[in-house]
Fold each of these.
Amino acid sequence: MSLITLALSKGRILEDSLPLLERLGMGPAGDIDRLLRVPSQDPNVHLVIIRPADVPTYVEHGAADLGIVGKDVLMEHGGSALYEPLDLDIACCRLSIAAVKGSPYADPGGWPGGRRVRVATKYPEITRHYFAQRGEQVEIIKLYGSMELAPLVGLADVIVDLVDTGNTLRANGLIETGIITRISSRVVVNKASMKMKHAALGDLLARIGSLRA
Ligand code: PRT
Ligand code: MG
């Protein structure tokens, strides 16, 4: 049996992944608040717990054989260097466009003309692609967090951000004006690992798949 390394996205995806891993007999066998690399209850599986945005990189380079990561992060990372065999249907949300309620940018009839619309987002690649496909030339303002603040202080006209309940938008006087895509967490697999550890990974993927069926 080959040793398998599974990369987990720290934060809310980890929270949603843990019950799944427990049911697979692969829960962490160590202090996940301190350790970055933890053995699991399965002696053949090791866990690495990293920033969500780093998961595709670890798996792409084979530092982890597989990983659990948000579709938002995968889309922003781009490329087809990874297999994406399973949708886990956890940490679900949507990637949406939002504007200040009552502002011209919240008007369903369309944005005011005159100058390029400024879009604040943590997802410049997805955003650029989305608006380009619609023939809209936008100015993208890359932020690392608290996108909701940007239109309130005049840094941007609209934001592209993840929305779940909509409470954060509402609390900040923003309104969702469009949905770019639905998001959930996916299993991604390194292509070389899939060949070299075919039996072990195939078995593991089948077990994960049967869990969610
Ligand atoms: O720490 P680091 O910057 O590396 O990552 P992070 O802070 O983005 O991680 P974390 O723990 O927030 O997890 C992010 C991942 O969880 C995303 O990549 C998504 O795949 C998934 N996810 C699911 C979400 C949400 N739901 C979500 N609601 N990520 C973020 N949110 C935020 C959103 O950005 C907004 O600020 O929650 C707020 C909106 O929630 P509602 O319920 O008020 O609408
Ligand atoms: Mg964070």
Amino acid sequence: MSGKKLIIGNWKMNGGIGHVELAKAIIEGVNGVNAKNVDVAICPPFTLLPLIGQVVAHGKVSFGAQDCHTAASGAHTGDISAAMIAEFGAKFVLVGHSERRANHNEASALIAQKARAALDAGLVPVICVGETEAERLSGDAVPIVLSQIAASLPIDCTPEQIVIAYEPVWAIGTGRVASTQDIEEMHKAIRDSLNSKFANAQIIPLLYGGSVNAANAEQILAVNNVDGALVGGASLKAPDFMDIISAAHSIVG
Ligand code: PGA
């Protein structure tokens, strides 16, 4: 995604009605920065989607959900479809986050179906991939992540329809960040593999996620082929999230 950065906040299972104030603070902050080359989105829990949809309508921030079902509707107690998410004006939906892969046994084939359901509902799936610590130590992180991507992309998707987030599992919520060399190596490998699949793969935003914070954002966002960040913990504090957005702004304007 040349020349633009995308910063997505993943609130995970955090936030009640009071967190609408957090969304408002982020919207106000983003409106004030005038960062025309930085796109910002927040992904609150499902319960906040209608409220966040209302406040986001007044600003330049978009929003998304953290998961969706593969079906558009039906007998799936407790699940939420992509169409339900889209109805509130959402733009994105995360699919295949490592916490869902681990906690709900989600495999890449299922992620591809969820991403397809997202596309069918007019949403942009943010397809998440990443190796575990054991996989990193085994030296196979790159082929493992590339095979996750190959199996998690829906058949017939096009580059303008998707976002990919590389999040090393061992870096999520731990305060440990991949080295810029490792991030660069992985993002280049991902880009190369996408280039062999698509004619215009350079437009696919490749986000890095895993303990991105105000202090390390600028360094990470400056890495080749890093088009943005998927931010967990630091997206729950408006000043920290704004610092990450400002870091992106300082790189691309
Ligand atoms: P973190 O989470 O920034 O708290 O490490 C990132 C994510 O899980 O998307």
Amino acid sequence: MPEIQEAFELLKNYIDDFPVGLLLFNSKKELISWNKYALVLLETANEELKKGKFTQTENQINEILNTSGINEKDLVGLSKPVKLKKIIAADGNIILLVSETFQETVGEMSHELRRPITNIKTLTESLLLGAKNDPEMLKKFLEQINGEVDRLTKLVNALLNISKIKSGRLSQAKKKINLKAKADEAVKLLQPIADKNKIKITNELPDEYEIFADPEQMDHVIQNLIENAIKYSPEGANIFIRPGPSAGSFKIDDTGIGIAPNEISKIFDRFYRVDKTRAKGSSGLGLSIVKNVIDLHGGKIEVKSEPAKGSSFIIYLPID
Ligand code: ADP
């Protein structure tokens, strides 16, 4: 038995009573050992794993095993949120640690919610201490409070969405959708913000461009990507909605500020924002939700970007 597997078997016996899942893969990424709790968390049976099969999480587990930049991943589609951590041993064996994410999510949530609340408290206290008597200050502070409340609303809505997706409650009724029409609806909705920022949005999809997806979730994905393209582009920029390189794929291109190569792998993480001082109303949650939705569809999202030139977010969806 190879050294790492021996150590793994030993460890496995010790931790069998702990709520942590462990999976060991050899360097060919074949599953060779696991503990009991991994079965519980991944909602699968011993017999399935013996055949090397993960039921509903197969694609997501393959993604973390085969993608060198991804060392952590939230699994979607299970009844409880679960996180994977990848550890690569010196000899190429891979250990996946499986754990529940609830604790972590609650921690991050409270942290993110505390900031706007603290800001509102400071602003209202300043007003009460006398700033209210200066009409200019009064207006400025009220506007800031209003902005913070918008931010809180966005955060709470996004978190509700995440918890719905994670618990698998978000309906996933896939249908044929006319993407051109869907994108037109999103553009109409966001046109006022684009106009305000002097940004032009062009829908270049052909009239009969169809995808197979959940209509409500796709609204969310398209609006989020266009909203980001507007938020991260200077005045005079262009946004294009175009067919992607294969059937059932599409992309949102912008001529905006772009994303540095070292940031690209992080932008889908929950609460990650490249520049934390920019963009009011930014939560760092939008793309993590978009990615979850696309994962749930069995699809994939790709980003190509160059700083100061622009970004392209490409969505691939299965065609049936
Ligand atoms: P946010 O609420 O901050 O926009 P997202 O999860 O939607 O959160 O995006 C995460 C980060 O990715 C953003 O803060 C931004 O830095 C970067 N980003 C997303 N879309 C674009 C884009 N089209 N162009 C440049 N940067 C982007």
Amino acid sequence: MANQYFIDRDFPAAGEEFSVEGQTRHHIFKVMRAKNGAEFELVFNDGRIGLAEVVNAENGSMRVLKEIHRNTELPIEVTIAVGFPKGDKLDFIVEKATELGAAAVWGAPFDWSVVKWNAEKLAKKRDKLSKIAQGAAEQSKRNFIPSIELFGKLPELTEKFDEFDKVLIAYEESAKKGETTRFVQILAEQPKKLLIIFGPEGGISPREIYKFLEDGAVPVSLGPRILRAETAPLYALSVVSAVTELEK
Ligand code: SAM
């Protein structure tokens, strides 16, 4: 199977030649040293995939030979929102959440987040995470690259709740109380757009859970074990895939 790359343009007309730019051009012509006739899978802005060949390696021009009909996206559009975790855990979460089908990965400062990132640091981190998401989306043959948003304040996250059919809070206290049914029950209702929120290492504060519930979010357990901040989103995405993609 040919390597897959994303290209920032719509699917071309039949036979249309186009030039490849940016990170994709660098990968194809510098890293892969592609020659005329070399073939790659290119994913266009609308998620459509074309098997394309190099027409002229000198000027980076290519053309699509045929469309590849493949959709690897989750049936439910899932956005993962995490309280800023320590160190490079967010890099890990973005890479794995991309492989597991997340449509977007958001981050925000929670009361018990140890790290405090200023606007400049957030901008740098967002650029780095977007590159990680693109690489993971290429490797895992996604139709789309998950979008990355890092908020400066928690209200910037809660203001977006009404963009979703359902907002869930992965809440450790629900797990400790033995709650076991709500997450799968809600998936069975087949929401189109789901936001799932996860706390940082220290967890979700009473002030935050009160605000989330007041804004209409639903607390759910991810099972009896208390998972690390970087494990919980991956477990949740795996459950969504198991319930919606694997045959019963
Ligand atoms: N400090 C918290 C404690 O000891 O109770 C644990 C926080 S946990 C490391 C980080 C986040 O992962 C939690 O805030 C929650 O969002 C999620 N999480 C971990 N295990 C979970 C579970 N079994 N059920 C629901 N959410 C869980």
